[in-house]
Design goal:
The structure is a single chain. By secondary structure, the chain is mainly beta. It folds into 2 domains: about 10-175, no CATH class; about 185-290, no CATH class. The chain is built from 4 helices and 17 strands. The protein has helices at about 45-55, 75-80, 215-220, 270-275; strands at about 10-15, 25-30, 80-85, 95-100, 105-115, 115-125, 125-130, 135-145, 150-160, 170-175, 185-195, 200-205, 230, 235-245, 250-255, 280-285, 290. A 9-stranded mixed sheet has the order 7-8-9-10-16-15-14-11-17, with no helix packed on it. The protein is elongated, with a radius of gyration of 21 Å. Mean pLDDT is about 85; it is low at about 1-25.
Amino acid sequence: MKVLSTLSILFITIQSLAQNALPIASSFPVLPKEYKWTSKSDQQKILSFLKTEKEKYYSYFNKTSIEYGIDFTMNGLIQSLHLIDLNKDGIDEIVFTGQSGEEGNRVDIFKKEKNSYTKIFSERQNLTDIITTQDQLYLFISDPGCCAEYSTIQKIYTTDFNLSISSFQQTYQSQIINQTKLPSSLFKTPIPFKVTLEAYKVRLEPAFDDSSKKDYDDMNEFKPSGNIIAKLPNYTIGNALGYMTDPSGTKWWFVEIDEKARLRNVKYDRTDQTKKYPTRRKGWINSKYIEKIN
């Protein structure tokens, strides 16, 4: 089985149906890894920053030993700080990506103003990508949650090059159950579609299974319903991102359902996040009862 993350293939997320459309065909990993830092590291700048900001933001990095496999030493903090000129003005911003001192990770961005730094952005969990266009900056955040949560929330924030606190706006959010099977192939460009059957089933994997019990059934005391994770009303729209054909010859599409869709029998957690921002859900549908749309 070809695994998408192993091949380092990225899912394409298209915002053409959203109010704040991305002007570029952006990529978002379904099971993302940490952003790979290639920017320079100037330890003197980092130490100067910590001299005034450590106790204010990172007082929990004060242990003299490593516990639970997490480095809370000063060296661990230094390794979590990165220099990068986000707005191409010749002055480096400082980005923190690491432990939050609570549950999970955190992403913080600091902008230098005169002789001090101001925190201009903060979000839970992991930074997975940074994309810069001529006049915009896009931050890709992946939040796998904590504890018994079984899905990952994916977010995109955009800002102009002023990098003011108010300029950071969330423009995208999607959700995927962590056990979702990933497609072996992607469409060159996403295919807009609508379903043509009432209560059309979105599944965890490209296979017909209406009876087995899954982990999320146990955690939420759901009645076993196989790999069905949602049902779609007739005429629900979305984008097909990838595809597979099962051993019987049935064709399946890996899709991202429109955020306005009124899904039924939903098997997704993280309602604290999905109620805050319109959320697209990813999963599999049989490609038989669908119609391509422009």
